[in-house]
Amino acid sequence: MKKYTFTEKKDTRSGFGDGLLEAGKRNPEVVALCADLIGSLKMNDFIKAFPERFFQIGIAEANMIGIAAGLSISGKIPFTGTFANFSTGRVYDQIRQSVAYSDKNVKICASHAGLTLGEDGATHQILEDIGLMKMLPGMTVINTCDYNQTKAATIAIAEHHGPVYLRFGRPVVPIFTDADQKFEIGKAWMVNEGADVSIFATGHLVWEAILAGEKLADEGIDAEIINIHTIKPLDAEAVLKSVAKTGCVVTAEEHNRLGGLGDSIAQLLATNTPAPQEYVAVNDSFGESGTPAQLMTKYGLDAEHIIAAVKKVISRKKQNG
Amino acid sequence: MKQDIAQLEQTASQVRRDIVRMVHACQSGHPGGSLGCADFLVALYFNAMNHNPAFSMEGKGEDLFFLSNGHISPVFYSVLAHAGYFDKAELATFRKLNSRLQGHPTTHEHLPGVRIASGSLGQGLSVAIGTALAKKLDGDPSIVYTLHGDGELQEGQIWEAAMFAPHNKVDNLIATIDYNGQQIDGPTSLVLSLGDLKAKFEAFGWDVLDEPKGNDMASVVAVLEKAKSHTGKGKPVAILLHTGMGYGVDYMMGTHKWHGTAPNDEQLTLALAQLEETLGDY
Q1: What are the φ/ψ torsions at residue B171 (nearest 5 degrees)?
Q2: ipTM of the complex
Q3: Contact at 8 Å (CB) between A30 and A77?
Q4: Span B252-264, mean pLDDT?
C-alpha cells in the first residue's frame, strides 16, 4: 500500500475559494455569483480582487442560474456559489433549460454537499445532487476529495467550455493530494495499485478508502484504490481495466446509493464485464443533525464500512469461482 | 434599414399569415399569443433594435432580444426569417422532425437568432439581466429586450429578477409584458389575478410605461422609442403592452380558446382571407 500522509487539514470549499481567485487572475472573463452565502463559499478573496466581476444575487437561486446563463451568452465564464441543495434540487428546471439544454458555459459550484454539512440537518444535506446533475445531457459532474484537488479542479473547469457541476464540502479534511497537481477532467486518479478488489471512491470517501486500504493491507488484502473525481464523463477505460484485473468492486460516495457514482460504475460494468459490486453509500434515506463524524459512522460512510464491503465482495467473487 | 409605419404594418400582415399557416401545417402550436405579439416583434426587429442577422451568439455591440414566453415561437420564427436570420422556406419545417424550428425556441439546433431555450416559463428575465450586466462590464451601450406573457408573471422567478434589476440599476433593459389578460385555462382574472401590474412593477423600482394600443403599429413604435429614451437613467424599464390574443383573425380574438389550438383547413382559409399577403408566403 502506497503511503499517504498529511500535515494539514482544510475544507474543500476553501480550495474552491482559492481556485476561484486564481481562475479570476488568469482570465478576465471569469465572473462569480452568490446567493447570500459569500462566507460559506469562501468567495471573499475573489470579491476583494475583482469587485466589479462579482454579483450578489440575494436569496434567489433560480434568478442566479438565469443570470449566470445570460452572462455566459456574452462570453463571460460565470461561477455560481451556494449550498449543494440550493444549487441543484431547488433550481433543477432553470439548470435544465437555461444552462444544460442551452449549452451555456456556466460553472455551478456547490458547497456543503452530503451529510458532512452536519448539524443543520436533512433540509440542507442533499444526497441526490450527483444523480440530478449527471442525468442532464452535456453536464460535467465533479466531486473533489481535498483542498488541493478542489483548487485545481476549480481552475480546470474555467478552462473547459461547457456546463459543469462542481461539488465540495464543509468540514476540514486531510490534504493528501499534490499542491501542484494538474486536474484532468474525466481522468481517474490511481491512488494505489492493487490486485484483489477495486475501490472506486469520490469526494470525502477517498481518504476513508486510503485508511481502509492500509488496514486491509495489514490483513493481506491488496486493494486497488481509484479516485473518480469526475463522475461524468466517467473514465470507463480506467474502471474496466481495473476490474479486469481485480474482478470485484466497492464504490464509496457521500450520496444516496440511488443515482450516484455506484450506479454509474454498475451500469458501465453491466454493459461490459459484469462483476460483483458493493455500495458504500447512504441507503435511500435522508440525513439528520449531528457532527459530520457521527453522521458518517451512523450512515455507513467510513473506512470500517469500506473494509466490510471489501470483505463481502471478495467472498462473493470467490463464490462465483 | 428602419421600416416606416406603413412598411411595418405590411410586414406584420405577412407575419400573421405565416403564423396561421405554420400552426395549421403541423396542427399544433400557439397562434393566439403569436398573433397578438406580431406588431410588437415586427416593430422591435424592423424599427427599434440595432441588430445583425449575420448571427453571433455573443451579439457584442448589438441590441439583444429574449423571448421568455417561448410558446409564441411562430411569431418569433417568422420575424427572424423575414429579418434575414434564416431562409423563410424553413418556416415550413416548424414543429416537424429534424427541424431547427422546435416547438419552443432552442439553441440546441443552432437556429440563428435564438440565444437561449425558453418554454418553461419565467426564466427569460433573469437571462436578460445577466446579458445586460455583461454588456455593462464590456462597456457596450446596447439595450437588452425581453417579452413575457402576462400569465407568465405568476412564476416566482420573475419576481426574483424583478427585485434584482432595480437594486443593481440594470437600466439597459426593457421588459415588455404581453398584457392580453388570457392564459390557457381562461382569463387571468379568473385563473390567478395579476392585480395592479403597474403598481407592482413600480413598487419593485421599475420605470413602467403603459401602452393601451398594443396592436396599433404607430403606438407600438412610439412606446418602444419612449422606452429607449428611458434607459440609462438608473432603472429597468417595463412596458405593459395591452394586446388582444389572436389579434388579426376575427374568430380567434379576445379568447383564450386559441391559445394553443391549430385551425383546420376551413378555418385557415377564413383566417388568410383577413390577412393580406404582402411579402410573399413561404
Answers
A1: -100, 15
A2: 0.97
A3: yes
A4: 93
